[in-house]
Amino acid sequence: MANSSKDFLYLVGTLLLVHSGYSSFEFHKLTASTHKQHSLPLDISLEAVVGFIIILVGAITSIENPKYLSVEDKIISEESRYLKPIEMKNAVQLGEQLGLADYSDLENRVAFIDVRRIRGEYADWAVKQNSEKKTE
User: Fold this and answer.
1) pLDDT per residue over 112-125, tens digit each?
2) Could you list the residue ranges forming a coiled coil in this record (predicted)?
3) Which of 67, 82, 95, 136 sees the fewest Cβ atoms within 10 Å?
């Protein structure tokens, strides 16, 4: 989309939100003067939702990588229009710091842990800790 159509989406969405807000204000003033409780009319609610969706669409379509101006007055843009390239060394850096391997999901099978053995070891440890506290 061109820049003007993005601005148009922002403008229309903002106008719809402002109009629904003003209509809601008028409605609440009207109901306050009659001392009756009424729910907000559906058209005002829908107008606010549609305005928000239009602004959201405008915001999503405006996401692009920035273009840079070089010293020679040439516009330089990245290879990809929307996403920046990811270097693998940066992508796996956290995994390397944590000590995870590429196949750690296959090497560490949580489903095959012997829960009864681990619970028994914990129970033995807890009994040992209690007996040490009693002797002190």
Assistant:
1) 777 888 899 999 99
2) none
3) 136
